## 1
Amino acid sequence: MNKQLLKLMQRPQLYELSSDKFWNDEHISKGMLEAHLNKDWEAATRKYDFVINSVEWISSIASPSLKNKLLDLGCGPGIYTELLKRKGYDVTGVDFSERSVNYARESAKKENLDITYICQDYLELDLEEKFDVITLIYCDFGVLSDKNRRLLLKKIYSMLKLDGILILDVFTPLEHEGKKEYKNWSYSNNGGFWCKKPHGLLESFYRYENNTVLNQSIVLTEDELKFYNIWEHMFTCDDILSELKAVGNWNVELYSNVVGEKYSDDSKVLCAVARKV
Ligand SMILES: C[S@@+](CC[C@H](N)C(=O)[O-])C[C@H]1O[C@@H](n2cnc3c(N)ncnc32)[C@H](O)[C@@H]1O
């Protein structure tokens, strides 16, 4: 284990994978579901008031009476999908977290909402159906490697109808402006977010070229070592426009967030509304 730990204390290769699944870990996924469902946290879903305004805005720029078929990628436990369904969209949600999708399915049943949920990695999605609107919300696009972002955008482009709309948000470089690299050790006697057993935690923040950062958490218990690499690529306006352009033709409008505020240079988030042409 020492050898592995020593290796892990060195800077990881760009886009090196985690040792274990984050969103589908039995323990971590419980904490993340709790975070999704807490209306006042910004951890997994944005605060509920924001989500409500977001759904209002989406339905104002892509009216459900004209653009009815909506696909929500990374839908989590269905916070957006349920509100979108109530707005009148025909909604499909995709997420690879079994715990979240199970929750979403149960909740839709209880609320008598006819929503289709698919439990799958959206990078492996292979649907025949075409959609009027595709959403990818809360900066999930930026956690993917360059290669996987291209792959996902190609898939999205092919799943959109002509004149269909992609709505996605990403962080800008201001999100981590001025933040220096660090490594912090801590010990938890009673378990915590990462692990329910007593464990040591080494949390590191690394910067890479081209506006990419890594939040790495190494979790060490008596008999196990796991590490989670959470990558984040941040985008300037030109970056997002050129990644979109690389997969097809779009008319793109940029905003400061997924409630449609005007884009400004001091925004930490960039929301692209890309219409397939
Ligand atoms: C930050 S949460 C955002 C959830 C939701 N969009 C919202 O704003 O409430 C990211 C979600 O995307 C899911 N996810 C991440 N990568 C995925 C992938 N490759 N395929 C499917 N789901 C993914 C996670 O399980 C999680 O539910």
## 2
Amino acid sequence: MTTTPPPLSASGCPMLHGAAFAAHPDAVYKQLRTQGAAGWAEIAPRVHALVVTDHRAAVTLLNDTATYSKDARRWDALTQGQVPADSPVLGMMAWRPSVLYTDGDDHARLRWAMDDCIARISPHRLRELTRRSALTLIARVITDGRADLMADFADLVPMLVFADLLGCPPEKTDQMVRACQDLISAGPEAAQGAADFAGLLFELIQFRRTQPGQDLTSWMINHAAQLTDDEALNQLFCVTGAGLIPTAAATAWTLHLLLRDDEYAGNLAAGTLTVRRALSKALWEHAPMANFSVHFARYDTSLRGAHIPGHVPVLISHAAANTDPALPGGRSYDSRAHLAWSAGPHRCPAISQATTIVQTAVETILDQLWDMTLADERATPLLRHGPFHQCPQTMPITFRPKSRARISATALAGGTP
Ligand code: HEM
């Protein structure tokens, strides 16, 4: 916890980006709370948004579709050219024809396709795919005695899983993983990564039109909602954009809790229940999608005392709402009242799939590297820069080096999908 408050932007707003936010996000949420249920923040250089930090206000807004829209074409500052064209927030906030940016009947149609496709993922296949991906990654570091849980494991498991779920041919997987790595980098290579990834999805759609398989791409393009190619591409882009970093972050936070917190560390042998409870606590305390669920009021309005002008972005701080001091104390982490999955019609459609990936990845690495310890004892690791995700930059671990042979034996014994 810092004693000096984080610096304000030139416009006098708390900054939801930059090094000070990455080091002390809670101090910035505290600054925001002084403005009421929603406060102005700078989310990138020269880009401002209202951010809701009050749990009750967040739930009200997320369910009030008559007042609030998800359609980013309502963003006045953007349509009037006041947002820098190369702003790093545009990759996630600019309008696309997908579930994330639509309302009412348009959203219902796209969400119908999304829900049906996600529901077709077999839980057994997903578990096996995640286990096999996790083992492949552990095999790369197991003889070293050290690794970075982020770069070597948590970031890559969902990428390998998604490449397979999307029906990416094996010879293209490396290319897709590289594009995804750039896409989520929040650095200068992000825009190129997004373009490369969209190009790969375009090729994949053409390929699966002639050779359909049991994968998200084939299901999306053949769904009864009859999506155009552009809609299908953006829906698949949305699945990946919405799914990758939060799943990586949830995996990392769960492992961080299990390795650091005495309440869990002594109970690791208790297995699945412990991992599930740790995930639940991680979702309360470190909401992976920290500030998102972007909405635009259709007209000037108010929200629990806060003035909300129409046509400006209003973000929900899932992170700040979950840690709202007004929430009753002593709640159980098993409670589902947290907002890590959001709420209302745009609530995450893949909760059980995300849980399966995180749980399987965590159990697999704990099985293989049972003696791993965190190399950095800090209570809260430094976060990646940017307003949207709450995700550690690195998480170095050490363990006793082991033979790679033990992994191939395990992988073969489990079979592969
Ligand atoms: C722990 C991991 C995850 C967390 C914390 C998470 C969280 C969220 C949140 C907060 C939203 C609301 C976004 C908004 O309204 O702007 C959302 C939406 C969404 N998520 Fe997840 N998510 C996770 C994993 C996944 C995965 C693995 C997938 C895909 C398989 C996925 C697919 C989606 C989609 C498609 C939406 C948009 C839904 C809509 O707008 O109707 N998510 N997620």
## 3
Amino acid sequence: MNQPELQNLRIFQKLGRVDSKSVASCDQLLLILPAKPATSVFSQFPEGRKLQQVMKLSAPDSTPAFTTRLANARQTLVVAGTLKKDATAFEQLSLARKLVDAVRDQRAGCLGICVIGFDTEHQAVLINNTVAAALAAAFPMPSYKRKRSPSVIRSLRLLGADATIDTARTEAEAKGNNLARWLATMPPNMLNAVTYADLVRNLAASHGWNYKRFDTKALSKLGAGAFLAVAQGNDDDSAGIIRLRYRPNKKAAKADLGLVGKGIIFDTGGTNLKPFLSMLDMHGDMQGSAVALGTFLAISELKLPINVDCWLAITENRIGPKAYKSQDVITAANGKTIQTIHTDAEGRMVLADTLVLASREKPGILFDYATLTGSCVNAVTTRYSGVFTNRPALHPHLTRSGEKSGERVWPFPIGKEFMEDLKSEIADFMQCSPKNSGDHILAASFLSEFVDEGTPWVHMDLSASDNDKGLAHVGSKFTGFGVRYTMSVILDENLFKANI
Ligand SMILES: [Zn+2]
């Protein structure tokens, strides 16, 4: 199997006034200006008066605001966009993606980024958000074409910043997001449970993470019947749960943060088989695990001083004579019994046991990521993801991280009250409701039954994981939504250390 090329582009910086020499070193240049820029803004840029004229002649409110070439040896292509001062992170990232996209068919070379007309702090944020879009666009996604088209963007040059821009966080988040998108895009015959585990083990070896894999035998000993119910339909015995540990200081320390991801390599729906179109993109049903792993990588790249565990629940959900079926009664690792209703609700089954194992180790806070329910998409579209927590006081923090990172989330309630809809005659509860109303809320309420009550826990239903035209700074169908988000939870909201 191919391996992802995770090394980011090189980023050069030239501070202070933008002169024609530094502009001439760029093949293309993205220029971000305030809405209705004054003449004084244009005068900070070579050939500024010409640019002002071009903008005047361009259609108002268009994106890009204008494009033009400069009179230098490379005939640098300038692609400009404007932003209102109060533009949200999502709007900033979306503009950056569209500007980067506008150079897609150009000559390969150095991409300049220049943000003028904003205060220093704002400028740094806008430059970082534009770098995020450039790093996403330049990353080589899986391709099995005989002739590959290499990225147009070979290096990045930041021009005209008031102070040195710290891009370390953006670069770490880009690595994590790129890894997540790469994994989700991989064809399911290439990325199977064996090659996925190999890739994770190699990453662990090269980053100094502790790696442990619970195979079906070990999981059977742990009583992980819910995970195994799904895995028993596989053609081989490759399913398992992987646990990674990142310990920057004391090896034996408890985790401050646990990350859990749903890794369904391919979801046929199982015995309750999906129809064609619903099954078509189900190689992306492992994106929760990819996001957990990508977040873990970003934390490790930044060498954050927190202890983190990452749990990846990896299996297929297949049809076959051994596959689980409706009305099977299954016992999970915490002893709770589940009446199976629909085999396509496999995500909550594999997560149930993984959450039991993860919360047993009492992390400071536990996050899980899953492409879990269609009803979350129905509720918030594919532009937002749903968040659910057993600590409702966290919701303002969780929502704010969505606004800050540009990966926006919407809060939903969970709790015992909703478990009434999952009342079972034969087991502790049903896996899902045959009525299927508010399934995202019922699924999250179901999952809460497998999290130790003493563990603060956040569940993300990744409805924004799959967008045909990309989302925010990312142009690919699979968005890797969740990596930037979680980094904002950690770094901006400091949740893992807060008194939760
Ligand atoms: Zn499913």
